[in-house]
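Hey L., structure's done. Input below.
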Amino acid sequence: EGLDGSMPFRWISADWLRMWADGAKCPPEIDNRAAMCAHGKLDPSKCSAMKRISVEAWDALLEKKYELIGRALMEEDWCDECLRAQAQEALETDKQADEWVDIRSQVQTALDFDLDSAQLGSEQS
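Output:
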């Protein structure tokens, strides 16, 4: 059991697992490398392409002669470094979006002021 009370698990490609579950011909290798980041851990942006399975299910797949390429990705193998970087990038994107809203508001205010000034000038003539 994990520190938080959860059961240990392994990450596996959702596509590979779907093929296996459907009885389709799946590759003889379980290859999680496409979901790994440069740090050799699970890339948080690729979690949606992965599924969690129990250690027992994982071991049963390996016992059925499916070959593991790379290494098993365990529950603690998601990458904190990439998660922080992606969160920072999202914050920066939000900040830029807020800045554009502010700039657009300032431009709109300036344009409205110019239109009001132009209307006042034409009314005085």
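The radius of gyration is 27 Å. Helices lie at 14-21, 55-63, 80-124.

-- N.
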